[in-house]
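To: structure desk
From: M.T.
Subject: fold request, one chain
Message: Could you run this one when you get a chance? Sequence is below, nothing fancy, just the single chain.
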Amino acid sequence: MDVPLWFALLVAGVLGYKLVRPPLWLVAVILVGGFLLADSFLAPAIDTAINK
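Reply: Done. Structure tokens follow.
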């Protein structure tokens, strides 16, 4: 079965939110912070750390 990555991430995010119940402001900070870090000068270092 082929599932698109965006759908798998969406399902994991929804289940994680329902199970852990973090505050909405924390979810927003993590999403915005990840979006901003993706285009920063730290992106290559983060990519290297994740792919090891």
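Reply (cont.): The chain is about 75% helix and 0% strand. Let me know if you need anything else for the meeting.
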